[in-house]
Design a protein that fits this description.
Helix content is 39%, strand content 31%. The chain is built from 8 helices and 9 strands. The protein has helices at 2-10, 30-41, 61-75, 107-110, 128-143, 158-167, 193-207, 216-223, and strands at residues 17-20, 23-27, 83-92, 95-105, 112-119, 148-154, 170-179, 182-192, 211-214.
Length: 227
Amino acid sequence: MEHTDKLIGLWPAAGLRARSGPLELRWINDRLLAELAELAAEGIHAPGQMPFTVPWSRGTKDQVARNVLEYQWAVRSQVGPGKLVLEMAVLLDGVPVGVQAASGDNWAILRSVETGSWLGRAQQGRGLGTRMRALMLHLLFDGLHAREVRSTAFADNHASNAVSIKTGYLPDGRFRDVREGAPVTVNRYRMDVERFGHRRDSLAGLLGAPVEISGAEPVRDRLAGAG
């Protein structure tokens, strides 16, 4: 506990939490990271699918696990006014089941991020992707005072598109991108702070339990350049 307290004192993001009933978003420490890497290595989508622009989820189990480790180690320091990369472990009843993330440049000026996530296959198809996105919206808007949250999804990623629509994002156009050497259509979605206010009761209904956020104030100070 003393070691954890010292880390949070130096790096406030390590103490950031959001909880709703059995669902929790928590900063990814190395213990959680190892468990998440093992979870991803077991597969998070069908072999013929690819929901990510960078195909980090392809390869042997060891390769996928190392991809998770390398990415998380590379971005965990990017929590500041110029760039925010917030990677949160998703826990259900204390067990890691996936990752919910948000990232954006020039946070101190724009306070705008794009969400992304992945979920272990055993937990898919049960509405958890919607609930963890709803909880992340509470963390971003209520906890960190975001002005805008965006999301993108390949047109053939029906689950991700459905989550954005169900949580109340508004369609924000589409564009073409490249996935594994082939063109693909990407749908874009957007929610601003006013829209979040209108959707708050609906999001609470999706979560089914009150939202508790802790550790947000010192993170806000750091994002504002005060810490």
